[in-house]
Design a protein that fits this description.
By secondary structure, the protein is mainly α. It is 58% helix and 5% strand. Bound molecules: heme C (HEC).
Length: 295
C-alpha cells in the first residue's frame, strides 16, 4: 500500500478540504455556514467519522496482510515503510544544506584562534531563496508604485474612508437606536408613527392633551415653537427637557433614543397642523424650516 502521508496528516487535510469547499460554495452571509446552518455541522461530523472509519479499516486490512507475510517479508515491509516517511527530513536537509557533525572536518577553515575555529558552511537555501524573493518583490514594487504610479497612500486612505462610510450608513440602517439629535431624521413610516402615538398617549397627554392643544405644556399644533421646531429641535427638547422649572422633563431618562425619534415624528407629522378642541394661545416664535437643499 502506498502511503503519501501518515494518517494524522491525511485526516485533517481531507477534512479541511471538505470544510473549505463547503464554506466556499454555501452562501451563508457574514456568518460561517456551519453556524448559520447547523445541518452542515452534522455533515462535517459524519465526514470526520467516515474518514476515521476508513483509516481504521485500512489499518485492519494492512494488519491482516502483515500477519500473512513470512518473517523475512515482514522485516522488508517495515523497512520500506519507514523509508517512505523520510521526505519530511529530506526536505529539511534540502532547505538547510546542513552538514552533519561527522562531515564537519571537510568544511572547517584552517585558521584557529585560541581554539575557536570556523566552518565554511554554504548559505542555507531557504535563506537564499527568500533573499531572491525580496529582490523580485522590490523590482515589482518599484515599477508598480514609482514608475507606473498605480496608487498612493492618500488614495488608499480615501478609498478606505469611503468604504467605511458606506459601512457606517449600512450599520445605521439596522441600528435605529443609535439616533441622536444630530443624526435624527423625521420618521414617516406608519409603524413608527403608530409607536410614537402610543408613547405620546402614555406619557404626554397629561400636559399637552391628546390632540396637542396644550394645557400645562404649550400648544403643539401651531407653527409657534418656544424651543424651536423641526425634528432636530423637537428631538432635543423631548430628550433634554424644557427650560428649568417649566415642567417638561428630560425624557431620555425613560425613553430610548428611537422612541424619542418616534414620538417627535408623531408630534410633527400628526399633531402639528391639526385643529385642537381647546387650543392654547401660541407661544414662542414661528418656526421656518431651514433651507434643506443646502445640506
Ligand atoms: C408634566 C407636564 C409635561 C409632560 C408630561 C410633557 N410635557 Fe412637553 N412640555 C411641557 C412644558 C411645561 C413645556 C414648555 C417647556 C418650556 O417652556 O421650556 C413643554 C414643551 C414641550 C415641547 C416644546 C414645545 C415648544 O413650543 O418648543 C415639546 C415638543 C414637548 N413638550 C413634547 C412632549 C412630549 C413628546 C412629551 C411626552 C413624551 C411631553 N412633552 C410630556 C410639559 C410637559
Amino acid at each position: 500500500m502506498k502511503n503519501i502521508a501518515p494518517w494524522w496528516i491525511r485526516i485533517p487535510v481531507i477534512f479541511f478540504l471538505v470544510f473549505g469547499t463547503m464554506e466556499y460554495f454555501i452562501d451563508s452571509g457574514a456568518k460561517p455556514a456551519f453556524i448559520e446552518y447547523p445541518i452542515t455541522l452534522l455533515f462535517l461530523i459524519v465526514v470526520l467519522f467516515l474518514l476515521i472509519a476508513i483509516e481504521v479499516i485500512l489499518k485492519a486490512i494492512e494488519n491482516v496482510f502483515f500477519q500473512t507475510l513470512s518473517e523475512d517479508a515482514k522485516k522488508r515491509y517495515l523497512e520500506s515503510k519507514n523509508k517512505k516517511w523520510n521526505y519530511g527530513s529530506n526536505l529539511y536537509k534540502k532547505l538547510t544544506k546542513n552538514r552533519p557533525i561527522e562531515e564537519e572536518g571537510e568544511i572547517v577553515l584552517d585558521h584557529n584562534y585560541d581554539g575557536i575555529r570556523e566552518l565554511d558552511n554554504t548559505l542555507p537555501p531557504w535563506w537564499v531563496y527568500m533573499f531572491y524573493g525580496t529582490i523580485i518583490f522590490a523590482i515589482v514594487y518599484l515599477l508598480r508604485f514609482h514608475v507606473f504610479n498605480d496608487y498612493d497612500q492618500s488614495l488608499e486612505y480615501e478609498q478606505e474612508v469611503a468604504a467605511a462610510q458606506i459601512a457606517i450608513e449600512e450599520y445605521k440602517k439596522t441600528a435605529k437606536n443609535l439616533v441622536d439629535a444630530s443624526t435624527v431624521e423625521l420618521l414617516t413610516e406608519a409603524s413608527d408613527i403608530k409607536s410614537g402615538q402610543a408613547i405620546f398617549t402614555a406619557n404626554c397627554i397629561a400636559c399637552h392633551m391628546a390632540d396637542g392643544g396644550g394645557g400645562i405644556g404649550p400648544n403643539l399644533t401651531d407653527k409657534n415653537w418656544i424651543l424651536g421646531g423641526g425634528i432636530k429641535n423637537v428631538f432635543t427638547t423631548i430628550s433634554e427637557g424644557g427650560r428649568d422649572g417649566k415642567g417638561m422633563v428630560a425624557w431620555k431618562q425613560s425613553l430610548k433614543p428611537v422612541e424619542i425619534a418616534q414620538v417627535a415624528s408623531y408630534v410633527l407629522v400628526e399633531i402639528n397642523g391639526k385643529e385642537p378642541a381647546n387650543p392654547k394661545a401660541p407661544e414662542g416664535d414661528i418656526w421656518e424650516e431651514p433651507n434643506t437643499t443646502q445640506e
